[in-house]
Amino acid sequence: MSSIKTLKNFLSITRHKSVAAAAREIGLTAAAAGQQLQQLEKEIGLELFDRTKRSLTLNAHGRSLIEPIQEIVARYETLGSDLKSDLSGTIVLGALVSTLMGAFGKTLNELKQSFPSLEVKLIAGLSSNFLDQVLDGSLDAAIVTESPYALPQNVQWTELYKEPMILITPASLSKRNASLAQFEPKLPFIRFERNTWTGHLVDQTIKANKLSIQEGMELNSVEAIIELVRQGLGYSIVPKLANIAWENDRQLSIRDLSGKAIYRKVGLLERKKHSRQNVTQLIKQQFLLGTKKIKP
Asked: Where in the sequence is the domain holding 11, given as residue range(s)?
């Protein structure tokens, strides 16, 4: 019978899509991690991945086992937790880097302080990629923006907070009370990647405010866009992240848009049934109930 370590190895390989990367995470050699995977497949009697010389792709059998194996590992890691009156074990969360600079970063810190035996593994990425990872069980949940598309029936998204979309310009090239028309022809527009969920919000903001822009660069990082604007390389529309001292930033000028206000809504994406709902429920309570501190 496979050990818990073998099951964890399988879950790590599904997350990384690489035996070598999984081995580094769990402290094994690539050869040992590969042998554990082969042993698991032998015991189950099924191949869990489609293999080529260059890739390892989870197949239908492998996908069907992710949630049951996650539940086994979670139950093992929480043995005795009922006696300790706290949360323990591991939760794997996807998170936009910008949400860690927003309101979610503070909540994550409070969660760790209240439950020190709970291990939180964070995976950085994009909202659209996180949806696939939540669906296949690679992630327990993810902090993402609201999807512009209908979500599959077996997942749910709960709004946690929202951030207004704002216009930012270099402070060195414009006065705070200057109109957009005065500097618009001089600077290129730095756009968040179009095919992302946040990119759709940028397009909505441009259309709602009837802005005429000169296209410049396109990036998939709010943080990188803010830094490029600080350097005077363009202007942009970004969500107003909660943990940035915008008004004290001498390199940026922040402008409220005169048209319809557009908000980036940030929430928790999770399967409707999964083994770490006790943790995701606490995260939602922290925002929805407006408590100052998560209590054990």
From this structure: 1-61
CATH number at residue 44: 1.10.10.10
Q: How many structural domains does the chain have?
A: 2
| pLDDT tens by residue, 222-269 | 989 999 999 999 999 999 987 778 888 889 988 777 778 899 999 999
Q: Is the pTM of this model over 0.85?
A: no
SS (H, E, C) the chain: CCCHHHHHHHHHHHHHCCHHHHHHHHCCCHHHHHHHHHHHHHHHCCCCEEECCCCEEECHHHHHHHHHHHHHHHHHHCCCHHHHCCCCEEEEEEECHHHHCCHHHHHHHHHHHHCCCEEEEEEECCHHHHHHHHHCCCCCEEEEECCCCCCCCCEEEEEEEEEEEEEEEEHHHCCCCCCHHHHHHHCCEEEECCCCHHHHHHHHHHHHCCCCCCEEEEECCHHHHHHHHHCCCCEEEEECCCCCCHHHCCCEEEECCCCCCCEEEEEEEEECCCCCHHHHHHHHHHHHCCCCCCCC
What CATH number does the domain containing 253 carry? 3.40.190.290
